[in-house]
Amino acid sequence: xxxxxxxxxxxxxxxxxxxxxxxxxxxxxxxxxxxxxxxxxxxxxxxxxxxxxxxxxxxxxxxxxxxxxxxxxxxxxxxxxxxxxxxxxxxxxxxxxxxxxxxxxxxxxxxxxxxxxxxxxxxxxxxxxxxxxxxxxxxxxxxxxxxxxxxxxxxxxxxxxxxxxxxxxxxxxxxxxxxxxxxxxxxxxxxxxxxxxxxxxxxx
Amino acid sequence: xxxxxxxxxxxxxxxxxxxxxxxxxxxxxxxxxxxxxxxxxxxxxxxxxxxxxxxxxxxxxxxxxxxxxxxxxxxxxxxxxxxxxxxxxxxxxxxxxxxxxxxxxxxxxxxxxxxxxxxxxxxxxxxxxxxxxxxxxxxxxxxxxxxxxxxxxxxxxxxxxxxxxxxxxxxxxxxxxxxxxxxxxxxxxxxxxxxxxxxxxxxx
Lengths: 204, 204
Hints:
Chain A has 204 residues and is of the alpha/beta class. Helix content of chain A is 43%, strand content 21%.
């Protein structure tokens, strides 16, 4: 049986990671979405093990100590992280696990688990990137400018990724990612005993 | 502008390299077929620079001496080889160059130009591989058995390739290869100045 892989979809704020991942999962129901762990409490309707693994701070810090995260971050008094165990179990079952993550998180994973497939989402233009950041609408002009400058700087990280996908029309971006997935499944390095498999199927 | 790449389609006799390449070129008229050089004379209807580059033995051996081949072989009193110049010029123009070649030739290219994309064609079963070798119909049972044993041994080389494609139904094999091409075009390593390209398109 062939191993699955961890598919990282990443990029600066405003590149449309969330929209692209949602459409990708809708069109490919066999892809497993990586569930994060967090120390924040569940919101109404959130289900443990589905939206997040909800754990307390002590448990989270023990897991950090035991090197049980592919990446983690401390944001506004709470931890968020990607538990290794869940991802590795699914990969070993042959599944493709999707992780939507910011650039900093992706760079942590690159260090800890470089076998993942790293895709960098690009905005079609800088103009459009700014528009998308503005459209979120909840922030002051200062915040918007700061986010835009951040996003602009983060574009420099594209060189650390395997693939880039321009997210102009969502359907096209998803179709690009589907081709990457199809190609990655055909990688020799992810298959063991290809010759034996052909023989087993056909007899000799 | 992004660089193109050399796409190697290879595999043992009987895996259907010729059929798959013909269909791939038919469906993708933008792919450039790599023209080989040979010292054998042109047959009726063959055009220099299209079917082959027809050159004499002295010229061929000078080119060998000047390291002008990605690979070459001496078969039945004639030389056959893949001239570097043609391939590199097309790649630098951003083109995808297709080379259909046997396993030994592919392994020579792997040594000389490992940046190429190496695809190994597999038969669906060993039974089918034997059938395909038999179907050529021009050979004695001894020849058929020798070719089959050779093909069987050559399957061990799959580990040196980037991708494997099972050629059961030709259309499916071609569609797999098209996905590999689409993914390879999205590789970060083949693009220079991705950030600048986004900026140039959009202004800032």
